[in-house]
Design goal:
It contains ten helices and 29 strands. With 620 residues, the protein is of the alpha+beta class. The chain folds into three domains: 226 residues, no CATH class; 244 residues, DNA ligase/mRNA capping enzyme (D-amino Acid Aminotransferase, Chain A, domain 1, 2-Layer Sandwich); 119 residues, Nucleic acid-binding proteins (OB fold (Dihydrolipoamide Acetyltransferase, E2P)), CATH 2.40.50. The longest helix is centred in the middle third of the chain and has 17 residues.
Length: 620
């Protein structure tokens, strides 16, 4: 393939994508871009022969050798596409949101093993393997590492064009059994989710003389885009279902803490009816209820993000749980938990197998959130990552024992022979509350009438992620809708800049600023790095301030793990940072800012005033 096909498919006066250009030299980089076009998929690209050799991988790459991912070879892309992150306008080829999911370097592996092991190969061997249809290579990325193979296969579909390949992880020290790509829903370059990129008018990352227009957003692909992007809610239960008395006590204490974490109720809506009438009399007469077999697959309804809370009598308001969205299919006293992109989560949360005992029905489909709780009963996404043994950009971590989880149910979509998706939300929630018994593994997610601002303030005081507003009369749409709205709570923190990282791709000046706070002993503690929030002008201005401060002395206490090519600077600059939460301590030690965004430099305070003890969440 060549860039002629790439050029033929695009109207460059309408799309912010870079024009075709073959580079004289390849740097052996790779990039994986999450792409919400007609259907959400991942584009896997290897820099080779002056272009990016490209494959569309519907389910995305995996670190599990058992996953043999179909990879459809597509046209070569220009190397300047490497760090493209933005939105291709509707009506253009590949229209939709693009996020840089992983970047790194790759090297070909010689097709001839030495002592049973693959060794680095040559450029000539790589070209020969690609032509033969069996390319072996080694990745060194932020999320993907180790040995892989791309194997050309004979297409079985009628009219196959011969572009079918398999992307396979080789067995080595970097495998992750049961790898779930949904654990990673942010850009490795900017830290943004697909939803945030889709809503960012300036989301094209390279410099261009043309404005990067977003065009009209198409609901179908946007629904799929953020279906994978917003994994930010979690629900409560225990990690090991009563193996020991100790785990039972942890579970109970977690649930007591969860109760204290719920905000005070502004106009709380409750349903006093704890008994369940026969389905035939209760459901049959509901407007919109349709008698039909239970569905086997449902794509969750998604909320549109807005900035400010509001009050409105036509809306209900709920807490936004920071966990894993999951549809619960209950049948014959068993439950199947399915993620947004249709992955089965049941094995990851064995304690939730008791969920059917809390639902007074033979068959039901619930929508809700699996949430991990901290010691104060607050949902914590970082604890959930530790519970499931995944952390972005890191290898698999030891499983953290004793992390309680719970399923917060907030919608009922099917009940004993009746599909309820066309029933109004308020009626669905009333019915859900009547058939659901709160227990060790499941809670009803309460809703509040009219007073969105009061609930938002209460959630903010409790350190929760935000709230969701839903129209009382909304039906269940399997896409993103403006009849459900989400309002996130963000935090701010002043941090000391102790270094910066090199830029990647076509980005100029620097990649991110490395941040720290002083502890009680006057040591600068690393708390993360911010790579988003900059434009071309601010990158240059801040870089001009950083360069004179460069030093070979590490200003931080201890080594900084997980970062490459850090340039240390004297800790004289202070940055205002926006972030979502403090993560819990990781294998590398210390708490970190989650999703930090640079807002600007501060010159009105002494950097020594940036104190760790005043920044961390209170234990009260």
């Amino acid at each position: 393939m060549s860039l002629e096909e790439y050029k033929r498919k695009r109207r460059f006066e309408e799309t912010p994508e870079p024009p075709p250009k073959i580079e004289k030299q390849s740097k052996h980089r790779f990039v994986v871009q999450c792409h919400a076009a007609t259907r959400l998929h991942y584009d896997f690209r290897l820099e080779m022969e002056g272009v990016l050799k490209s494959w569309a991988v519907p389910k995305g790459p995996s670190l599990d050798p058992a996953d043999k991912r179909l990879a459809m070879q597509v046209e070569d892309h220009p190397v300047s596409y490497f760090d493209f992150e933005g939105t291709i306008p509707e009506g253009n080829y590949g229209g939709g949101t693009v996020m840089v999911w992983d970047v790194g370097t790759w090297q070909p592996l010689s097709p001839v093993p030495v002592n049973g092991e693959y060794v680095p190969g040559t450029e000539k061997e790589a070209a020969a393997m690609l032509a033969k249809g069996d390319l072996k290579f080694r990745l060194k990325g932020k999320r993907l590492n180790g040995d892989f193979a791309l194997v050309h296969i004979t297409g079985r579909r009628p009219g196959s064009k011969g572009t079918e390949w398999l992307l396979i992880k080789k067995k080595d020290n970097d495998i992750v059994a049961g790898f779930d790509i949904d654990q990673y829903d942010t850009s490795v370059l900017t830290g943004r989710t697909m939803a945030e990129i889709a809503g960012d008018q300036g989301s094209a990352e390279w410099t261009s003389s043309r404005p990067a227009t977003r065009g009209k957003l198409k609901a179908a692909w946007l629904a799929e885009a953020v279906a994978r992007a917003d994994k930010k809610r979690k629900a409560l239960t225990t990690e090991d279902t009563g193996d020991t008395e100790k785990s039972k006590k942890k579970s109970a204490s977690g649930r007591r803490a969860a109760a204290s974490a719920r905000p005070a109720s502004p106009s709380r809506v409750t349903n006093k009816n704890s008994s369940v009438s026969p389905v035939s009399s209760v459901v049959k007469g509901l407007p919109g209820a349709v008698e039909k077999p239970m569905p086997t697959a449902i794509h969750p309804m998604l909320a549109t993000s807005i900035d400010e809370p509001f009050d409105n009598p036509g809306w209900l308001f709920e807490i936004k749980w920071d966990g894993y969205r999951a549809i619960a299919f209950i049948a014959d006293r068993a439950v199947r938990l399915v993620s947004r992109n249709q992955n089965d989560l049941s094995a990851q949360f064995p304690e939730l197998r008791d969920l059917p005992k809390c639902v007074k029905a033979r068959r039901a489909v619930l929508d809700g959130e699996i949430v991990a709780l901290d010691e104060h009963g607050r949902p914590s996404f970082s604890l959930m990552q530790q519970r499931t043994r995944f952390q972005p950009g890191k290898r698999r971590l030891p499983r953290r024992e004793g992390v309680p989880v719970l399923y917060y149910a907030f919608d009922l979509l099917y009940l004993d022979g009746y599909d309820l998706r066309r029933v109004s939300l308020e009626k669905r929630k009333e019915l859900l509350q009547s058939v659901l018994e709160n227990g060790d593994v499941v809670h009803f997610s309460d809703h509040y009438a009219e007073k969105g601002r009061a609930l938002f303030d209460a959630a903010k005081q409790r350190g929760l992620e935000g709230i969701v507003a839903k129209k009382r009369d909304s039906v269940y749409q399997e896409e993103r809708s403006r009849e459900w709205l989400k309002i996130k709570i963000t935090q701010r923190q002043e941090c000391v800049i102790g270094g910066y990282t090199d830029p990647e791709g076509s980005r100029q000046y620097f990649g991110s600023v490395v941040l720290g706070l002083y502890d009680k002993r006057g040591r600068l503690i690393h708390v993360g790095q911010a790579g988003s929030g900059f434009d071309q002008k601010s990158l240059k201005q801040i870089f001009e301030r950083l360069r004179p401060l460069e030093t070979k002395t590490n200003p931080f206490h201890g080594e900084i793990g997980g970062l490459h090519q850090v340039h240390f600077v004297r800790p004289e600059l202070m940055a205002e940072i926006k972030f979502s939460e403090w993560t819990h301590e990781t294998a590398e030690g210390g708490m970190k800012l989650r999703a930090p965004v640079f807002l600007g430099l501060r010159f009105d305070k002494d950097p020594k005033e940036c104190r760790l003890e005043g920044a961390l969440p209170s234990s009260e």
